[in-house]
Amino acid sequence: MKIKFSYLSCLAIIAFGLVSFSGCTESTILGSDLIPGTDKVNVRDTTITNLIVNNVLRTDSTVFTGGPSNVNIVIGSITDDNVFGKSHGIAYAQFDLPSDTFRFKGSGVTIDSAILYIPYSGFYGDSMANLSFKVVQMNEPTFKADSSYRYFHQLGINNSVVWGNTTVNALQCRDSAFIYGTSTMGPSLKIPLNNTFKQLFLSQSNNGAAEFDTDSTFRLWMNGLALVPDTAVNGRTLLYLSMSGAKISFQYKNSEEDSLVAHFGFSIYDCGHQNFFARNYSGSQAANYINTGKASGDSLIFLQEAPGIYANLQIPGLENFPANAAINQAELVINQASINMDPNANIYTAPDNLMLYKYANQAMDSLGYVVDYGNPSSPNTSFGGQKTVISNVGGVEIVQYKFNIARYMQLLLKGSETNYGFRLIASSPYEVDSRRVVVGGSGEQNNTSMHVRIIYTKQ
User: What are 193-236's pLDDT values in tens digits?
Assistant: First the structure.
């Protein structure tokens, strides 16, 4: 273990109201909770730089989409990110009838419009860049509400049956829509469906088809819709949507009334849905660093929210730190790499949070929580992992993340903890997400390299 030391000699507080000092550097600031109450102490500031950090990419079979507990979806495409490569998301969904034995009201019905609405909650990438989508017919006979699907499970579609097209940007999705005097649809992705789709539904209604009698017969007939981005054109945006509140709204009139509306809504308990999401690292900078398995580690670490790249982190010999040390502070420090190697970092922004797990065994195939994290149901905010902006020049941010591992370190020295290594991930509350960041990895000479800073008292 290679350690750099700087010695701090500190006098204990001997009088009330002692004047505090300004202009101290980070390495010389000790909080009151870090200074032992002896007449004279020897506090040491230590930096451990020999971390071995490796980029890892694995298919994550634990990431599921669909089912009644997860209605969030990420769709769109990013094709111009030469650092992390390409990403795209597809959404699949079924819908319910407005009511059992549904028929468009009255005679002489004319459908003015049919629009697919999916509530919008945000975006990632370039809010002004255009995204093109098509709505196509699904061909997945077993598609159903009570099934969850892994993110890499691409469902069957019929590309020859296209029900609609649209080109939008994220800013346009923020607009609300007024639906024929009956309601207002909040911010949403809005896709007009074509005349073929409208006439198909009108024909079923006019003919009294059994497919419009119950939700189950309707979903057997209209197996589902797939919302597919155009990945052949330049894409710079992913949209965050929610199937909760999604619907197909028909605005129509008959021989006696106008301004009539019928909503074919989405139900989490009745309707199948899924979010397929794919990454392609070919030709990207990340491709040169993924799964290298270098014994010395990778100098740059590429972190992506799931499904994406994570890092394995080892601190060789950490358990051999002086056993008589009282750990006052121990921080894992993670710095964003130079912006010069990631020119789109202001568009494809860094994750708000990283998360650090410990490996529970030497095989590194089982994860556990670091003791400093606390109770998983109510974790300690002091554990860290939050994004902190440490530089902002001309609107270009450089960020840093820190983790507090002081308790882990102290227990390790007492023999009550193990040093099997750690897993570092880009954290998100969503099953599928998109933010990414390049940070310093292994390497003692690089000022952005990952390191552990320890302040301790030698006893």
Answer: 999 999 999 999 989 889 999 999 999 999 999 999 999 999 99
What's the rounded Cα separation, in Å, for the pair 206 and 106?
Answer: 10
Tell me the CA distances in angstroms from 171 to 22, 147, 392, 452, one per residue in order. 46, 33, 25, 42
In the chain, domain spans: 3-57+283-458, 86-280
Give the span between the Cα atoms of 307 and 434, in whole angstroms: 8
Residue bearing tokens 């964003």: 336
Q: What is the DSSP letter of 18?
A: P
Q: Cα separation of 224 and 91, whole Å?
A: 10
Query: Which residues contact residue 133 at a Cβ distance below 8 angstroms, ignoring those fewer than 6 apart?
Result: 75, 165, 166, 167, 168, 189, 191, 227, 228, 229, 230
* Residue 237: DSSP 8-state: E
Tell me the per-residue pLDDT of 290-311, one tens digit each, with 9 for 90 and over.
999 999 999 999 999 999 999 9
The predicted-structure confidence for 54-104, as pLDDT tens digits, reads as follows 999 999 888 889 888 789 999 999 999 999 999 999 999 999 999 999 999
Question: Is 0.85 surpassed by the pTM of this model?
Answer: yes
- At 162, which helix (H) or strand (E)? strand 157-168
User: What pLDDT does residue 34 have?
Assistant: 45
- E strand or H helix at 412: helix 406-413
Q: Phi first, then psi: what are they for 249, rounded to 5°? A: -110, 120
At 34, is the secondary structure helix, strand, or coil? coil
